[in-house]
């Protein structure tokens, strides 16, 4: 099915002018426009997308989705435009309509931690048998999910989409657009509690995925998570666990090497040596194996895909030089931070262990409590140095210092970079972890 003039007109969502072509993809950033794409002009945090219509058109956009308000104030001329009350709503409606043309499995994933890594594992596994359509980058919100759906091509025969949320009702909304045939929730942790209040609230928000599945839909259920195991699911479900033996896929940890890389067996039959350290990676791998096996991928291909999996950028990505950097800078919440610290402490090191810690955001009134908790946890994990950055991480630094960790808080990332460049030596290892807003990838880029 193509997104063409007739498809857009059938939406009855606006007025189409000067367009009689097909669209390859939708984009909201004019700088990323390539010939054949449609540019959706959205109001942003700092500027309005309508200011970049000329740039998008010159870059090759063959359709500009604009607001009625803009069209009333500006001359359209020969520009190919779709004039609509809300460009954002139009994008979502187009995606929902386009989704109805898919006639193959659609798996949606959500969870507090490990969503993207698990999705990429599943994609790698399924590609052994299917032509997989998946989430573009980290597009998992009310703009990104529609854009990813609209990038589906006619030769795709399986879709894997990531759904993110920090408010109640968002997963329900995205599920209504994506209309998945199957769902997987990685885990329930402390994240976005500024809006979701507590772990129970997080569980309610994530459960919207299972609730949005059709009666004949399929739920992949992590029975190691008490919140997920208690959720209402369709009657069709696949269960997996390391601790519960009454499951479809039972995982067992058989070895952990001196770099915290796990070897696991599944159903006492399939042995997998995982290339990326940490217990969470093992849990993600069990989930991905369950999906691949259920959808008929040869177990040998599943094992090969997992044993050769590359870490997703800035998500527990190991960079080795004279010293080792664990780049986990993409995001952070209390659970994922403790897990990353576990991995750091499990890795054998000839030198010192460093922890560069940025604020964990969206914790609301619990922010001080959880940053203090991370400081205490750092002290329990045999970490030599804690270097903190942000409005709340100084609390963690002070808490760790009281318990014997050499800690210092910094007002700038540049000063952290200078210290690491001057101090890191052979055999040292550094974990860099913080929420997205801290942009700690700058530290990684400067020290590797």
Identify the CATH class of the largest domain.
Answer: Alpha Beta
- What is the third-level CATH name, the topology of the largest domain? UDP-N-acetylmuramoyl-L-alanine:D-glutamate ligase
Radius of gyration: 23 Å
Helix count, DSSP H or I runs of 4 or more residues: 17
- The CATH architecture of the largest domain can be given as 3-Layer(aba) Sandwich
Helix content: 25-40%
Low-confidence stretches: none
Mean pLDDT: 94
User: CATH superfamily membership of the largest domain, which one?
Assistant: Mur-like, catalytic domain
Number of domains: 3
Shape call:
globular
Distance between the termini: 46 Å
**Based on DSSP secondary structure assignment, what is the total number of beta strands?**
22
Which structural class should the secondary elements be placed in? Answer: alpha/beta
Q: In what order do the strands lie side by side in the largest sheet?
A: 9-10-8-11-12-13-14-15-16
Would you mind describing this structure in some detail?
- With 448 residues, the protein is an alpha/beta fold.
- The protein has 3 domains: 91 residues, MurE/MurF, N-terminal domain (Udp-n-acetylmuramoylalanyl-d-glutamate--2,6- Diaminopimelate Ligase, Chain: A, domain 1); 206 residues, UDP-N-acetylmuramoyl-L-alanine:D-glutamate ligase, CATH 3.40.1190; 131 residues, Mur ligase, C-terminal domain (Protein-Tyrosine Phosphatase, Chain A), CATH 3.90.190.20.
- It is 35% helix and 23% strand.
- The protein contains 17 helices and 22 strands.
- The strands form 4 sheets. It has a 9-stranded mixed β-sheet with strand order 9-10-8-11-12-13-14-15-16, with helices on both faces. Strands 17-18-22-19-20-21 form a 6-stranded mixed β-sheet, with helices on both faces.
- Helix 7 runs parallel beside helix 9, helix 11 runs antiparallel to helix 12 and helix 14 packs parallel to helix 15.
- The longest helix has 16 residues.
- The protein is globular, with a radius of gyration of 23 Å.
- The model has no long low-confidence stretch (mean pLDDT 94).
